[in-house]
Amino acid sequence: MARFNEILNGRFNRALQKITSIKGEAPAPVLGSEILPVFPMFFGKENRYLESWQTFGSFAAISAVAAQSAIFHFRNPAGSNLLSVVEKLTFTSTTTTVITAWMIVEGPNPSTSADDFGSTPNFCRFDSRGQQNPTCKLTFGNAAADTWPGNNRAWWSSFMAQETTVDVILTDGQEFPVLPGDGFRAVNFTANSPVGVSVVWRERFLEESERT
Predict the structure, then answer these.
(1) What pLDDT, on a 0 to 100 scale, did the predictor assign at position 32?
(2) How many CB atoms sit inside 10 A of residue 58's CB?
(3) Global pTM?
């Protein structure tokens, strides 16, 4: 027999069950007092550690190489059981000559260690109470062509003049997750042109109920 004001849209109950790992029947079956669960626990940066979030930042200065593009690659290793969320992504044209650099961001897409480049940027951890080094892998370098997975999958692009800075993420709604086995890549398609890439991201372990 149906309940009075029974919730038939399953996505609300599913979200509650996944977030809190509740077993059994729907945790909020009807409207009224049972639809009141609220999760305002996403505190300020000073308390993210208490929610198991670790925040890191990195900067890569990619040099110009003749006939090659500057490429930055970010990936979450497969099997890491880690959720990473990119909070800030910024590009800086470091050349003093007049150019029109074409900066493309691709992904998230499946990524393995075969996609890594030879150089690794330094990392900064933003809270000394957490782990000192991130789990996500960041590399950069140069290549004659971008083959991961083809620039037809790009989701953002920007033209850059000399000595300019472009932000990809301006609001929290533009942040994006990178799950285990996935990655993203930033490519400057203007050959022989240097670029600086700054990224800030947070990461935490996935709960069992979040993995599917």
Answers:
(1) 60
(2) 20
(3) 0.84
To 5 degrees, how large is the angle CA 148–CA 149–CA 152? 120
Query: Which residue shows structure tokens 């996609």?
Result: 115
Rounded Cα–Cα distance for residues 120 and 69 (Å): 17
Q: Are 178 and 76 in contact (CB under 8 A)?
A: yes
Mean pLDDT by 10 residues, the chain (212 residues): 68 77 78 59 75 93 94 96 96 76 85 96 91 94 89 82 90 94 92 94 89 74
Q: Would you list the domain boundaries of the chain?
A: 1-39, 50-210
The CA–CA distances, whole Å, from 171 to 86, 106, 205, 211 equal 12, 19, 24, 26
Full DSSP string of 105-139: EEEEEE--GGG--SB---EEES-TTS-SS-SSEEE
